[in-house]
Amino acid sequence: MITVLSPAKTLDYESACPTRKHSEPDFLDDAQILVEKLAKFSEKRLAKLMDISGNLAAVNVERFQMWERPFTTENARPALLAFKGDVYTGFDLRNWKAADYDFAQKHLRILSGLYGLLRPLDLMQPYRLEMGTALPNKRGKNLYAFWGARITGALNDALKASRSQVLVNLASNEYFSSVVPKKLDGELVTPVFKDEKNGKFKVISFFAKKARGMMADFIIRNRIDTPEALKDFDADGYRFDEGSSSATELIFRRAER
């Protein structure tokens, strides 16, 4: 079973790495094409493209200009340990063992606007480039066109290597839109997390992001390999709701506190 996640805007390149294991991303040549294009942008142009402040644009212009190969543990960091957004607060990495990282490396993938698809231990240099960015390039008008079927192909390779036919989608719509479901060599299962508010259950973005991370952590640490076993997920008050679920969409609800 392969699980996919979205990346995060917030990054951590300061804290100590709990593992020395690392690997190289598969799509570095593609990433370099994007970096070389973006490194020529002015701060004003990048701010407009990404709809970010001038200060953030300045930081990212510098990142693109400083980006270099080869990637080493001196200039890059494993992806799972570099992302620090809401999704990644759901991981209990302090209690991970070496075997957990090994399992994650085989069964977890992170979608990325710049790197395409990352394994947890793939080294990455800091960046900001959301998948929905309308960046014209030689392959099309945006990043979805740039990546085309490459990400889907890499996921099929991962499914084959894991001897599985199940892809668990824990990514946002923006990022999962880079995947072509019709070309997947397997079954797609999407967990959905709903919180009760004023007597009604609905997806609340902040809580759903953290729940996706918690479920990914649950999958890794418990070596989950079937959709049926996902139903046992009960972290932080979530419970599987059989009545509102289907074979392809698993609904988890959490009562109002």
Briefly characterize the structure.
The chain has ten helices and ten strands. It has 257 residues and is α/β, with parallel strands linked by helices.
SSE order, as H and E?
EHHHEHHEEEHHEHEEHHEE
**Count of alpha/pi helices:** 10
Number of strand segments:
10
Q: Radius of gyration, rounded?
A: 18 Å
Instruction: Please report which band the strand proportion falls in: under 5%, 5-15%, 15-25%, 25-35%, 35-45% or over 45%.
Output: 15-25%
Largest sheet: 8 strands, mixed
| Share in helix | 25-40%
Overall geometry comes to: globular
Identify low-pLDDT runs. none
Class based on secondary structure composition and strand pairing: alpha/beta
Mean pLDDT over all positions:
97
Keywords:
257 residues, alpha/beta, eight-stranded mixed sheet, two-stranded antiparallel sheet, 10 helices, 10 strands, globular
Structural overview:
The chain is of the alpha/beta class and 257 residues long. The protein has one domain (2-26, 77-254). 35% of the residues lie in helices and 17% in strands. The chain contains ten helices and ten strands. Strands 1, 3, 4, 6, 7, 8, 9 and 10 form an eight-stranded mixed sheet that branches. The chain has a two-stranded antiparallel ribbon with strand order 2-5. Helix 2 packs across helix 3 (54-66). It is globular and about 55 Å long. The two termini are 33 Å apart. The model has no long low-confidence stretch (mean pLDDT 97).
